[in-house]
Amino acid sequence: MILSSFKMVDTKLTVRMILSVFVVFLASRAAAEQVPTIMWSSQSYLHDLPPARAGHSLSPIDLQHDYLDTILAKHPQLIVLFIQDKLSLDDFSQYGDVYNGNSNGGLFSNLKSSMDHASSSLVLASELPASPGLHGNQVATYLEGRVDGSVIPVELSLTEIRTDGKKLPLDKNCLIRVQLPPAEGSIEESLRRNNDIIGSVIKSLPKEIDFTILLTANRPSKVSVVLPSHDSLSSGRHLLADGDAIDDSTFTFINATKDSSCAVYLYATDVSFLVAKLDESTPFEDTVNLTGVVPTSQTVTCANGTVELALKYSDVGNLKNLDMIIPFDVNKRQWSLGNITLQYNYQSDQQTVRGSDMLVPKFTATPRKMSFHCDKPNKFKELSTDKDNNTKGVITFQGLQVQPVDISNGAFSDANECVGFFTAPIWMGLLTSIILTLVLAFGMMMIMSLKTMDRFDDPKGKTITVNVAD
Amino acid sequence: MSLYLYGGYTGTVFFILVLVGVYYALSGQGYRFDFGWFLTETSPYMWANLGVGLTISLSVVGAAWGIFTTGSSIVGGGVKAPRIRTKNLISIIFCEAVAIYGIIMAIVMLQIIEPFDADMARYEVRKANFMAGYSLFGAGLTVGLCNLVCGICVGIVGSGAALADAQNGSLFVKILIVEIFASVIGLFGVIVGIIQTSRVSMGNKA
Question: Family assignment (chain A) (predicted)?
């Protein structure tokens, strides 16, 4: 009875829940393009404004109409506007020491203490204006246009804010606009500097005038990266990346394209070349890091059945030049890596090493239409060292991904990993364990089929008694 | 009850293997289901040592089974006819011979196992070492299984011989002829095993 009544309510609730999840989903798509607008005031009128709705980002019109107009309508007060270059709501969680009950706000300590002492506050999320809009500047322009008192811009590098020099008319609104300096150095340093500026501005405000302080930013600090190959609704997560932080020296990407049917992509997070002299008396070894170095020339040649990538590096550190030819054997169903030939010329103060080598890789063949990926390929082993010069040159890749045929959409296809789910040692262990458990099972079967002799058992006969003499 | 136990164990192992195979097939990784890869990537040492282990262990199991079958008959028959005890030790010796074949083959196979440098090996060296591994595994199975069934067979025949001898002394020699034929099959296994392992060698040279 209870269950049936629950069921009747349940369908409505489920529909509503699904709808709200859907809406939050859609809204969260825009989550990364929001900029927080935070306002707090010594008066409590902010409580009367429409509250912030979770997941909702205000359009500029709504922000102006619902919130900024009300702020401007209050006389007389001091409106202080802080414009930061980049800010996201996530920055507060990351740098604001929020997981500590007694925290003072971390790198936002002055913000937190000022908001705590304010009579009312609001945290809103605003949409970015149409490109190339800068949200903070737009808010500033709107307020400057409508405020009836004076507008006092504050210079950036001020460590002491002088407002006592200027007369503040006590019956009008005034706008103090502080453009916080853009980020230099690490994020923590710039946030700390902004915190100090905010603190000193707030401290220097005259106490007798009511104030409303706004903190907003021109752009969000975290941008979402949308992968082109994923359907926008089916991928539930975004990669939130710091847009400025791609460092070209941490990977090597070689795109050797001759035409649409002959192209080789090679990617590695680490490329290094080991050169050694195999003298017994004075052994010498050196490693040259080629990660992020653009090769002097990269050419690809396609014949039927083979694709060859020729790379030349010159003048990298002590390595005068390195010529590398990486051949791929391609047939209709699969492609595989052939023997790599190297020719190198290395000169340093101690040694000159010159030679040519051939490396034989031991990778399985990859089906066509797939790339090959290996995180720690340890199979480029030199097998024929140059015996005349007694030298050795080995190239190692880490995080290698390579595809010589069937490149489509300008990106790597699905990767054939060099390490599968069952590796060879796992299979060996499984086989031996199965044999041993078979032996165990056989033994158990034998033991459990042992029977005691019951031919002469007679339940009705006389029981045997054995007298034990002490 | 034991049927459920063994059926369950076999079923579980088989189910897991089928599950893995179907997963590979359905996720577009069918190329990974590769016996060739399995045979060329697993170490030849595993195969060789499995062969050695199987040789000695299966031979000993066969010999033991035979001895206990014959032995219990001799002991039982010897209660009423004590004259059979010494003569029927021949059956025990035939069973023991099977174990001796096993240990000789195991020692011969052990001498063949040598270390080799897998990473640096040329193609011919790897080929020779893998062939040695597989040959030793095959020889181990050959010798082990042959001796296993030979031992069981000699044991049952010997048991019959002992009990017949207890009844009628002239029957022993006739049944001994059957036992000799039974014992020869173990020898066949050893001969084939020797041929299998005679031409293989492991090491960095081959």
Answer: Belongs to the vacuolar ATPase subunit S1 family.
Average the pLDDT over each of A151-155, A217-221, A426-430 and give the range with the smallest value: A151-155
Q: List all residues 6 or more positions away from A135 whose beta carbon is below 8 Å from its beta carbon.
A: A35, A37, A60, A126, A128, A129, A216, A217, A218, A219
The C-alpha atoms of residue A67 and residue A39 are separated, in whole angstroms, by 10
B26-73 confidence digits (pLDDT tens): 987 888 878 888 898 899 999 999 999 999 999 999 999 999 999 999
Q: Which two tokens stand for residue B113?
A: 């196992």
Domain residue spans in chain A? 15-219, 244-417
- Is residue A132 reached through a cis peptide bond, with omega within 30 degrees of 0 on the bond before it? yes
Q: Chain B closest CA to A344's CA: distance in Å?
A: 22
Of A367, A381, A428, the CB nearest to B43: A428
Q: Contact A428/B46, CB-based, under 8 Å?
A: yes
- DSSP string covering A115-137: HHHSSEEEEEEEEPPTTT--HHH
Which residue numbers of B have CB closer than 8 Å to A's CBs? 2, 6, 9, 13, 20, 28-29, 31-32, 37-38, 41-43, 46, 50, 57, 119-120, 122
Interface ipTM? 0.88
Contacts of residue A439 in chain B, CB cutoff 8 Å?
57
CATH entry, A244-417, from 2.40.160.110, 2.60.120.10, 3.40.50.300, 1.10.10.10: 2.40.160.110
User: CA of A100, closest CA in chain B: separation in Å?
Assistant: 46
Task: Give the pLDDT confidence of A169-184 residue by residue, as tens digits.
Answer: 666 777 788 888 777 7
